[in-house]
């Protein structure tokens, strides 16, 4: 048996281990979307509208693309909101300048949330090495956001290298997840509604303000899902809805298993342990709004 086969078999013994590892890495990556450091850095470039900031920092790796590309890659944002800010945002700042500003903001954010000792710790360097090793097995085909970020240089400082690797792994899974949503015949808003109905998604108030949808559109999406037997009259997932969301996550796991099989079960366990400690510290430092997740 080859070492790669051994790693794959070991990782597959715990089919959700990769998902758990991704979740803690993704949470650490996502802290910068709510960071005042990002707001400050982008304001220095002349980008001040919250939606423009959001689109700029996540899409900059793609280059000065138009609204259609961003809507396609992001999937669950209303196109009209995207078009209100893209491509106009690139007139304020070139993508390379946005990327530099984002990295400065991430540096400040991680130092503020985690503390200087954690940033400079051997554990941070270890986590960066493990996450980068996992990312070696990511694939580019049909994964535009991952592939664009994979073209960026790996930062030298361990905490930024860790964040960069977390970004690669987040976008790799995310790109695959969109393929699964298409196969499940869920449009962007229906995907949001059904995810929120699990109790694990972003609360509607945040989706309205960040994704551009309104209550009427949300209600219409709920009605479409009821028509498919996925939601009940109270907006809760039916048995079929629960099964579909479970199938979506399991298929996403399958499309995203390569990085974690490459790292191996012991590496995944250690990276999850390290990442859990880091994101726990960040959460205690107030990394996210208290009402971000839920059905309310």
Task: Provide a compact summary of the structure.
This protein is an all-alpha fold. The chain has one domain (14-284).
Give an account of the 3D structure:
The protein has one domain. The protein is mainly α and 296 residues long. Helices cover 69% and strands 0% of the residues. The radius of gyration is 19 Å and the shape is globular. The longest helix is centred in the middle third of the chain and has 26 residues, at 158-183. Helix 2 (17-30) packs across helix 12 and helix 3 packs antiparallel against helix 8.
Topology readout:
Blueprint: H1 3-12, H2 17-30, H3 36-43, H4 50-59, H5 67-74, H6 79-83, H7 89-92, H8 95-114, H9 116-119, H10 122-135, H11 144-150, H12 158-183, H13 188-197, H14 204-211, H15 215-227, H16 239-255, H17 257-263, H18 265-284
Helix pairs in contact: 1-17, 2-12, 2-18, 3-8, 10-12, 10-17, 10-18, 11-12, 12-16, 13-15
What are the key terms here?
globular; mainly alpha; HTH_67; 296 residues; SalK; disordered N terminus; 18 helices; 69% helix; single chain
Number of helices: 18
Q: What is the 3D form?
A: globular
The topology string of helices and strands comes to: HHHHHHHHHHHHHHHHHH
Indicate the low-confidence ranges by residue numbers.
1-12
Major β-sheet annotation: none
Helix share, percent: 55-70%
Can you count the beta strands? 0
- Radius of gyration over all CA atoms, rounded: 19 Å
SS-derived structural category? mainly alpha
Protein name: SalK
Pfam families: HTH_67
InterPro entries: HTH_67
Organism: Streptomyces huasconensis
């Amino acid at each position: 048996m080859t070492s790669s086969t051994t790693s794959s078999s070991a990782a597959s013994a715990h089919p959700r281990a990769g998902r758990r590892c991704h979740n803690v890495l993704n949470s650490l990556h996502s802290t910068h979307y709510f960071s005042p450091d990002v707001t400050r850095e982008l304001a220095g470039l002349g980008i001040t509208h919250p939606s423009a900031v959001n689109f700029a920092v996540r899409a900059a790796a793609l280059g000065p693309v138009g609204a259609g590309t961003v809507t396609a890659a992001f999937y669950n944002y209303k196109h009209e909101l995207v078009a209100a800010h893209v491509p106009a945002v690139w007139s304020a700042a070139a993508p390379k300048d946005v990327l530099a500003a984002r990295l400065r903001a991430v540096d400040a954010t991680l130092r503020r949330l985690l503390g200087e000792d954690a940033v400079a710790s051997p554990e941070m360097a270890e986590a960066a090495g493990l996450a980068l090793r996992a990312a070696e097995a990511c694939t580019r085909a049909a994964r535009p956001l991952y592939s664009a970020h994979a073209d960026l240089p790996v930062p030298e400082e361990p905490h930024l290298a860790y964040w960069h690797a977390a970004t690669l792994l987040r976008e790799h899974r995310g790109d695959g997840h969109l393929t699964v949503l298409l196969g499940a015949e869920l449009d962007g808003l229906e995907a949001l509604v059904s995810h929120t109905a699990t109790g694990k998604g972003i609360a509607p108030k945040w989706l309205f303000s960040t994704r551009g949808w309104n209550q009427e559109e949300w209600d219409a999406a709920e009605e479409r899902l009821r028509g498919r037997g996925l939601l009940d009259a109270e907006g809760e997932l039916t048995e079929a809805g629960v099964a579909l969301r479970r199938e979506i996550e399991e298929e996403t796991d399958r499309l995203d298993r390569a990085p974690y099989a490459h790292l191996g079960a012991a590496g995944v366990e250690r990276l999850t342990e390290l990442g859990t400690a880091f994101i726990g510290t960040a959460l205690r430092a107030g990394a996210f709004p208290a009402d971000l997740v839920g059905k309310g």
